[in-house]
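Let's practice the habit of predicting before peeking. Look at the sequence and jot down your guess about where helices and strands might fall. Then scroll down.
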Amino acid sequence: MMLILYYHPLSSYCWKVLIALYELDLPFERRIVNLGDADERTAFLDVWPIGKLPVLQDEGRAIPESSIIVEHLDHIAGGGRLVPQDGREAWKARAADRFYDQHIQTPMQKIVTDRLRPAGESDAFGVGQARSQLGVALGLIEADMTKSWAVGERFSMADCAAAPALYYANRVAPFAKTHPCTTGYLERLKARPSCARVLAEAEPYFAMFPGGA
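Done guessing? Here is the structure:
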């Protein structure tokens, strides 16, 4: 049975899964879901009642959560490509994956979602905290970025997570002038064919993104 991916082209977590699919060259069927559309949301809830994207459907089973999906895809592709076979290296890749999700994606999304709140309902304090957290995390990346990719010289699941996280973080809190090593890493990610393809597919939707810094 064909893999089916339920996703949205602007979603950073969906980018993470798309990058993995393109890296592994796995065939799949696309199902774009607009959660803001009542009918599409209702139909998607039949697939995954939690209602969060992305979701991969494999042989009728719904697999949620981007990191779990990437590991599943790596297994389908034979293993060892995005999740290293060596246990210690696999731990490093998983740890970096969680770092980018928790400490770059989460504060970045706080900043973005605050811009979507109704007038007078913004959370300036929360946004300030998010920017501070993002600054600390970017500082850690800057100090550690002495290699080609997130955890070494091989592209891994950590880079699938880093690409959307850093791309959007740079949109809401530009860091080119303050974090040159991190910026260089982001440019390598953007030039990677799998990442460049995801960016190109998302481009028609960028007008929907709520502003820059």
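How did you do? The chain has a mean pLDDT of 95.
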